[in-house]
Amino acid sequence: MFDNNSGVLVVSEETPDRLCYFELDDLNVEQPIALVDMVMLMNRMKDVQVHLQARLINEHENIQYVAHLHGVQVVGKIPPYMRQVALKRAQPSKIQMGSKSEKVSRFNAALSKFNAQEFSNISSILESQNQPQDFVKGVGFINKILNENFGIIDMGKGEFALFDTYDLYLADNQTAADANKNVDQCFQENQKVVANACLIDSNLPLSHLATAVWAHGNQKVRNPDAPMARDKISDDKLAIFQQVSKSCDKLIPKLTNGEKKKTIDKVKTTPLYKEYCRTVAEHERQQGDPQTPKIEAQVSSRQWNDQIVLWKNNLQNYRNLSESANKALLTHTSLNDFDCAATFDREISRDFAILKLTNGKKALLHHKRAWVGQGAMYNGFHVLKKASFKTIQVNARSISPPHAGVEYQVTFCHSGLNSRDWKNKRYIYPEQMMKWYEKIVTLDALNFELKAFQQTSYRG
């Protein structure tokens, strides 16, 4: 995302390098919507799809397309934990992008930012939701009406805001206090609202103080008070806030560490988490990788649930990215078997051998990645040493940096296969062979084999 109102979408999973610039007004979502909610909604969320209508601006740029106005339609089932998000009816765009429109000018400015790496990526945006901050037109729900003057807003991230009738707007320049109305005459519990709220103390049961709150969809409120800086709030109002906040401690749901551990353990039994653990050892995890929520963190039930949801979404996204990378390995390799041949150079262990490419460079081969004649190679490398299989056709990815003079890693290779499509410059694989290589060509397996090779005694 470039800001809260514009960002970039991948046109399709099959073409991850084809990107489209979009703006918030292009989406069929009710506004306001938090940035983190928008990102979660559009980032391969289960049961949610994103349909796109756009104009090609320049196919040679890093971002090639610009979305039509209302040309990004989100369809599907929004999960219950995102009840603050509402979709409008998805309809095809009726306003196509003009090549000289103001939006194209904004696109060009965004393209410059993209090329300069001046944007927020998905990981940083999702991680930011765990950092307490002010709310500007944040969507929440009335959690409790305390009395005729005070109420509590659940802001949906384990954070709660206190408001009174002087903050409750019925229209611009008119509050409930001005109209001599009580809170319960304006709101009811669980009602959807919009609020500007200042972070006072994340350790208090009520962490925020609202400076303006109004009913969601109230068109009479267009210019409410912005969140006031904490140092601008009077001491008397802060004292009242802290007193009320502490008295509300029992009203805010909490979880025990035992309940948190039970939730963590449940996720850890899922195939999704087990697959992630096989891929990335705990000591190898980096910033941006899915991280297990900390049981000892002092958070509310809502905030804990949000962390669990984010964790599971990140695990799913990690799998989706891995699957996309695996597809790319099948179609976009550094070396293609139609044009690249090799000969057997030497066997360095039971698992690994070195192939010598026709250009003189070396490629690493794992014994499970060779197809010989009518089937997958078995019983070691001896068959590749025979004269009848002297030429080996190779698909390979580059190794950066090279290890011990080896610059490539074979994704799969074959010998004895003669059926070719000369027009499209590709081999025609038997169905059994296709099933074989689709199973073995995965990024995780290749990385694991490369790491194992780097730990051998081979030095060239």
Task: Characterise the protein shown here.
- The protein has 460 residues and is of the alpha+beta class.
- It has 4 domains: 6-125, no CATH class; 135-249, Nucleic acid-binding proteins (OB fold (Dihydrolipoamide Acetyltransferase, E2P), Beta Barrel), CATH 2.40.50; 257-329, Histone RNA hairpin-binding protein RNA-binding domain (Helicase, Ruva Protein, domain 3), CATH 1.10.8; 341-454, no CATH class.
- It has 9 helices and 20 strands.
- The strands form 5 sheets. Strands 5-6-7-11-10 form a 5-stranded mixed beta barrel. A 5-stranded mixed β-barrel has the order 12-13-14-18-17. The chain has a 4-stranded mixed sheet with strand order 1-2-4-3, covered by helices on one side.
- The longest helix has 31 residues, at 301-331.
- It is elongated and about 95 Å long.
This entry's quaternary arrangement is: single chain
Please trace the helix and strand order, writing H or E for each element.
Answer: EEHEEHHEEEEEEEHHHHEEEEEEEEEHH
* Order of the strands making up the biggest sheet: 5-6-7-11-10
Count of discrete structural domains:
4
Name the structural class.
alpha+beta
- Number of E strands: 20
Report the portion of residues in β strands: 25-35%
Please, what is the average pLDDT? 87
Based on CA atoms alone, the radius of gyration comes out at 29 Å
Describe the largest sheet.
5 strands, mixed, barrel
Measured distance between first and last alpha carbons:
45 Å
* Principal-axes shape call: elongated
Stretches with pLDDT under 50, minimum 5 residues = none
* Tally of alpha and pi helices: 9
How much helicity do the residues have? 25-40%
